[in-house]
Specification:
Number of helices: 16
Helix content: 40-55%
Number of strands: 8
Shape: globular
Distance between the termini: 27 Å
CATH class of the largest domain: Alpha Beta
CATH architecture of the largest domain: Alpha-Beta Barrel
Radius of gyration: 20 Å
Oligomer: single chain
Strand order of the largest sheet: 1-8-7-6-5-4-3-2
CATH superfamily of the largest domain: Aldolase class I
Strand content: 5-15%
Order of helices and strands: HEHEHHEHEHHEHEHEHEHHHHHH
Length: 340
């Protein structure tokens, strides 16, 4: 089953109903190709890339993507309005559907560069960044943020931050429903320890409607996503979509009403083998593609052998796309009792 055979892509506004979060070291172009095979309509995001890396480094390596990934948004990190405008101008030339500014990442490395969640404390600066980015593109400029940081009052401070974004002309907000604790918690702890507060995001959306607003954080199933869609314009899944990618095969039907037959594992593996062949011809390595596919057979007989083939054999010198088909064989030939 080819991408072209699966019907037209929805508009950006519709695609925002279900998006896959930008995740460092995960949502690279190989990951996005796989996710697009599984869902034709979801909005995909790049990994966060700093404005400095784009402006002062190799923009082609950071920004190039395959048009079949669309609709796709690029996420930028930074706090220098002029530099962000320059990075936006470069990203615009590649044809991204949306330019997103990260104001949510809690890592120490991000804080030391003065971008990410620490900017929640500087709404006026973020607003200046948004205005500068908007001046450099006709594409939508959006922001992904938290509900607050450290001891901020999430009622008053989030309202103040969001109002500044609206005044700056932001096209949409993606709101992670946890605070980020920048002092005393690791990035991993920031994913679970600060409590989720979905009702706070609902209230913000209700107050700022009709500004498009998507909710993120702790959403693990499509049932949970559908419940949030009763209150929000869209939902964003992160690790759940990455670790259990086959759930994305149900998104087009359940979220977008597209009843085109869902892709099965055999079709996905065949398409990824063809894709990997092209990547190898361009100097890539098989494991760069295979690492995103480990969860495709989760819950099925032969899943353990499937993961082992992709994680071990795909790393061997001269490994080729036939590894993917061998992993598929391990699932198709497995007895029912061998689920892993």
């Amino acid at each position: 089953m080819t991408l072209a055979a699966r019907g037209p892509v929805v508009s950006l506004e519709q695609a925002r109903r279900f998006s896959i979060a930008p995740m460092m070291d995960w949502t690279d172009r190989h990951c996005r190709f796989l996710h697009r095979l599984l869902s034709r309509h979801s909005l995909l995001f790049t990994e966060m890339v700093t404005s400095a890396a784009i402006v002062h480094g190799d923009a082609q390596s950071h920004l190039a993507f395959d048009p079949v990934e669309q609709p796709v948004a690029v996420q930028l990190g930074g706090s220098d309005p002029a530099e962000l405008a320059a990075a936006t101008r470069l990203a615009d030339a590649f044809g991204y559907d949306e330019i997103n500014l990260n104001v949510g990442c809690p890592s120490d490395r991000v804080q030391s560069g003065r971008f990410g969640a620490c900017l929640m404390a500087e709404p006026d600066l973020v607003a200046e960044c948004v205005r500068a980015m908007r001046s450099a593109t006709d594409r939508p400029v959006t922001v992904k943020c938290r509900i607050g940081i450290d001891d901020q009052d999430t009622e008053e401070s989030l309202d103040r931050f969001a109002d500044a974004m609206v005044e700056a002309g932001v096209a949409a907000l993606y709101v992670h429903a946890r605070k980020a604790w920048l002092q005393g918690l690791s990035p991993k702890e920031n994913r679970t320890i600060p409590p989720l507060d979905y009702p706070r995001v609902y209230r913000l959306h209700q107050r700022l409607s009709p500004l498009p607003m998507m909710i993120n954080g702790g959403i693990e199933t499509l049932e949970q996503a559908e419940a949030h869609l009763q209150h929000m314009d869209g939902v964003m899944l992160g690790r759940a979509a990455y670790h259990n990618p086959m759930l994305l095969a149900e998104v087009d039907a359940r979220v977008f009403g597209d009843m085109t037959p869902r892709p099965d594992l055999a079709a996905i593996m065949q398409s990824m083998a063809e894709y990997a062949e092209t990547c190898l011809a361009q100097g890539g390595r098989l494991n760069q593609v295979a690492r995103h596919m480990l969860g495709l057979a989760n819950g099925r007989p032969g899943a353990r052998a499937f993961r082992q083939i992709l994680s071990v054999d795909a790393c061997r010198p001269q490994a080729g796309p036939e590894i993917f088909l061998r992993a598929l064989d391990a699932v198709q030939a497995a007895p029912v009792a061998a689920a892993g």
